[in-house]
Amino acid sequence: MSTRIVLLGATGSVGSAVVDVIVRHPEHFRVEAIVSGGSDVRALAAVAQRTGARFAAVADPARGAALKSALADAGLNIESGAGESAVNAAVDHDSDLVVAAIAGTAGLRATHRAIRPGRRIALANKETLVCAGEAFMRGAREAGVDILPLDSEHNALWQAMGAARPEDVEELVLTASGGPFLSWTAEAIAAATPEQALKHPNYSMGAKITIDSASMMNKGLEVIEAHHLFGIDRARLRVLVHPQQAVHGLVGFRDGSVVAGLAAPDMRIPAAHCLGLPGRLHTTLPRLDLAAFGRLDFIHADTARFPALALAFEALEAGGGMPTILNAANEIAVGAFLARRIGFGRIAGLVSEACEALSDRAGKAPASIPEALALDDEARGWARARLARCSAVA
Ligand code: NAD
Ligand code: MG
């Protein structure tokens, strides 16, 4: 029987990787519903055409007619809708697996709604875990829903961990490419332009995560993500810069053994792993050629040049609502940087100020998704007001 899939964030970078795996194995999968933001209705119609999806939805309520005409132009006569109710209808379609690949906190509600007994969720949207990790994981546990880590480092760690118990794990190491600024001076990094920050050495990804990779905030968010996925505390989570991106994660066990997860740096590989479970799909995706690398390098992350990474570790250590505040302020800061309103060096500064200013709001972790979104909203409001004050002064 084929696996019935709902794909959230179908037109994005991860969404496209998942679509690629699906269309290479049509006998294994049936796509029930696809969702995107709405600025990309033609791309969504193309996904519908390639996958044979039965229902398509866009989050933007104003894009319903545009989606219908894009579907008609593609010669498709499937149901579609726009706005929150349509996204909910997509999530509610009967399915075995929901792929959560919407970018940013915008994906939180839909990802959380996907929790339903009898399903699995392949999770790429790390912001769900950073913003509302405790509430989300508790919901999943209570419903008996398995969360399959789709983010490449977490997927590697998960495979390396096997059936180990959390107490057997001495440390989890996430690797980072180091991004485009790996060898840049602090001054040069602070003055980097969006074009420079958008040039990731190994992956082609959405704009938000690419900027986060350049600041290393992405790795910081992934450390928090790992904490929630694997139940491993801050003291056992580490980051190593590994420019070749052959090793994605290492699990050190308390007996001294270390198991590493390796693969060619291609999101279709973790996607194929999640989609193939409980077995393995036979793919023709790029294979890792270690001899072609010749050598693999590992270096400590430099938190002086990449302060965002230190901020994320501090937020995880502080716990409670601090990661929610960190994530929200970071989304505002990245948006402002992409809009050329602030410099690259200001991203971490704004996040740090938000975490400090709202520290009294971070006492306990949000107990529910609405609570997480309320704190997220407050932190965004604070960060926006701070930016407005600064530009008024400038
Ligand atoms: P992207 O910007 O390429 O794609 C985002 C997708 O989300 C698009 O389909 C877009 O239409 C959709 N979307 C945006 N706003 C929406 C909304 N309000 N409602 C519904 N859909 C909406 O992003 P991406 O790089 O594919 O990343 C997606 C998620 O996966 C992020 O959380 C990212 O951190 C994570 N991730 C990405 C990669 C990667 O290689 N790109 C790897 C690991 C994890
Ligand atoms: Mg990753």
From TrEMBL:
Keywords for the protein's UniProt record, in alphabetical order: Isoprene biosynthesis, Magnesium, Manganese, Metal-binding, NADP, Oxidoreductase
Residues reported to bind NADPH: T11, G12, S13, V14, G37, N125, E127, G206
Q: Which reaction does it catalyse?
A: 2-C-methyl-D-erythritol 4-phosphate + NADP(+) = 1-deoxy-D-xylulose 5-phosphate + NADPH + H(+)
Enzyme class, UniProt record, top EC level:
oxidoreductase
Q: Could you tell me which pathway this protein works in?
A: Isoprenoid biosynthesis; isopentenyl diphosphate biosynthesis via DXP pathway; isopentenyl diphosphate from 1-deoxy-D-xylulose 5-phosphate: step 1/6
UniProt domain DXP reductoisomerase C-terminal: residue ranges: 262-380
Read off the Pfam families from this record. DXP_redisom_C, DXP_reductoisom, DXPR_C
Residues bound to Mn(2+): D151, E153, E222
Residue ranges of the 1-deoxy-D-xylulose 5-phosphate reductoisomerase N-terminal domain? 5-133
EC id: 1.1.1.267
Q: Where does 1-deoxy-D-xylulose 5-phosphate bind?
A: K126, S152, E153, S177, H200, S213, N218, K219, E222
InterPro entries per UniProt: DXP_reductoisomerase (IPR003821), DXP_reductoisomerase_C (IPR013644), DXP_reductoisomerase_N (IPR013512), DXPR_C (IPR026877), DXPR_C_sf (IPR036169), NAD(P)-bd_dom_sf (IPR036291)
Q: Which GO terms describe its molecular function?
A: 1-deoxy-D-xylulose-5-phosphate reductoisomerase activity
* Span of domain 1-deoxy-D-xylulose 5-phosphate reductoisomerase C-terminal: 147-230
Cofactor(s) named in the record: Mg(2+); Mn(2+)
Tell me, in a sentence or two, what this protein's role is.
Answer: Catalyzes the NADPH-dependent rearrangement and reduction of 1-deoxy-D-xylulose-5-phosphate (DXP) to 2-C-methyl-D-erythritol 4-phosphate (MEP).
The similarity annotation says: Belongs to the DXR family.
Q: What is this protein called?
A: 1-deoxy-D-xylulose 5-phosphate reductoisomerase
Instruction: Write down the species.
Output: Pseudochelatococcus lubricantis
